[in-house]
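Input/output pair, single chain:
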Amino acid sequence: MKQFKTLLTQLLVITSLMLPWATTAALETFEKAGHITSIGYDTFTMRDQKYRISPSAQLKSNDASRNKFSDFKKGDEIYFKGKILNGVFYVDIIFYEKPDLS
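Output:
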């Protein structure tokens, strides 16, 4: 019976994700820029808003010291795009440009 409930729950989740009205209504895109105030394994915070890094997120950087997300530090200024799904902010692409210190 427990396996049946688990299977039924999985089918309901998959079905709801496949329905166009379910995903379209809950999906909204965003673009933001600013300084990272805190950073974790797959999340970061900026201006008291938490953002989750999508597993397939892309990173575009012109700085060799910032080749992967784990290289970022508190205070780094980034520009990013993503989507809001059911109230969760998912980041799909992050742009980082090395600051000009001259």
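The domain at 27-96 is CATH 2.40.50.320 (OB fold (Dihydrolipoamide Acetyltransferase, E2P)). The first strand starts at residue 27 and ends at 35.
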